[in-house]
Amino acid sequence: MVTFFTATSLDGFLATPDDDVSWLDLLPSPTEDTYSPFLANIDAIAMGRSTYEFLLRHEARGGDWPYTDHPVWVFTHRAFPSHAGVTLVAGDVATAYSEMASHGNVWVVGGGELAGQFLDVGLLDELVVTVASRTLGAGKPLLPREATFELVSARLLGKGFAELRYRVA
Questions:
Q1: Is residue 169 part of a domain?
Q2: Which pLDDT score, from 0 to 100, does residue 9 have?
Q3: What is the pTM of this model?
Q4: Domain count along the chain
Q5: Integer Cα distance of 100 and 113 in angstroms
Q6: Given 120, 127, 151, 165, which is the most exposed site by the fewest CB atoms within 10 A?
Q7: Side by side, which strands form the sheet with 149-156?
């Protein structure tokens, strides 16, 4: 199972035009943690370059690398410092997919473009979107592709968020 699990603004942006996600901190916390149970069922992670850079900056400011228990594939054409368990991939998602899938469930984290690449080659199974009650007006789109999904469930996560779960149609 390949899942794009992410948060988005009400107007469909993952981050501001300069890849900032701190706008999420301006909202009340969700009333339910859906991230931890989701992560407990993930075996491998496909990550975009911008998300990886964000995590490296967070770590440089004293944060911890959050994915020590999961192998991570970072899709990039740049050279970066790498953690144990992190593989930098310059190729397409289809080439790296078989190795990722051999671990089990794959989480596509960070990057609507990366999720779109999985969708393009028929490898994306579901989309789990936590919609925040805030608009950004511009930024990095949730999924910069035309696609049809089937809504599987919707639930309220407090006054600031709703979680929508879709299956690829």
A1: no
A2: 97
A3: 0.92
A4: 1
A5: 18
A6: 151
A7: 86-89, 72-75, 44-48, 106-109, 2-8, 126-132, 161-168, 149-156
